[in-house]
Design a protein that fits this description.
The protein is mostly helical and 180 residues long. It has nine helices and no strands. Helix 2 packs parallel to helix 4 and helix 7 packs antiparallel against helix 8.
Length: 180
């Protein structure tokens, strides 16, 4: 009986040892996977950085047509929810520069592309809202990115035209409506 108990203990020790080895292998595999993911992320960041430099060059030296083509590509990229956040974040500074582009055609095209983008970056949205009235007000009346908080901010500090545009929205929040 003692021999049987010892045999069961030996078997349990062997299984425990195998389990520990298996857990160690699994942990090592996870660490290896994490290292690969970190390498992939670093590689993606580097690629995005290089791409951003190329886009900046188009922004600085490109024709109106080249800038419009650029903004259309960038707008479709940030509108696509499958685009990784890091890539969307990298192009926001370029789009912000396009909001204040000296050529009106570029600004009009940008607003046309971004007007229906949901969850638009707040800096980008407010830059458009702060632009020329004839460009900003149609955007302000139609953008789905305007939250209740954004409405309240415009009602508190915006000029009368922007306040009236917010007041006329069909999706005005109860809080914003009561503020008016």
């Amino acid at each position: 009986e003692h021999a049987a108990d010892q045999s069961r203990l030996d078997e349990q020790d062997r299984l425990d040892h195998q389990g520990a080895l298996g857990r160690e292998r699994l942990r090592a595999g996870r660490l290896s996977d994490e290292a690969h993911l970190q390498d992939d992320e670093a590689r993606r960041r580097a690629e995005v950085h290089v791409a951003a430099a190329v886009l900046e060059a188009v922004l600085d030296t490109g024709s109106v047509e080249a800038r419009v083509a650029l903004l259309r590509q960038l707008a479709s990229m940030i509108a696509d929810l499958e685009t990784p956040k890091i890539e969307r974040d990298q192009v926001i500074p370029i789009l912000l520069k396009l909001v204040v582009d000296p050529d009106r055609h570029v600004r009009e095209a940008l607003i046309e592309e971004l007007i229906l983008v949901p969850d638009l970056n707040p800096d980008l949205m407010f830059s458009i809202i702060a632009s020329d009235d004839d460009l900003a007000l149609p955007f302000l009346s139609a953008t789905p990115s305007l939250s209740g908080w954004h409405m309240m901010a415009i009602l508190r500090v915006g000029d009368e035209r922007r306040q009236c545009t917010v007041a006329g929205r069909g999706d005005i929040t109860a809080e914003a409506a009561s503020f008016i």
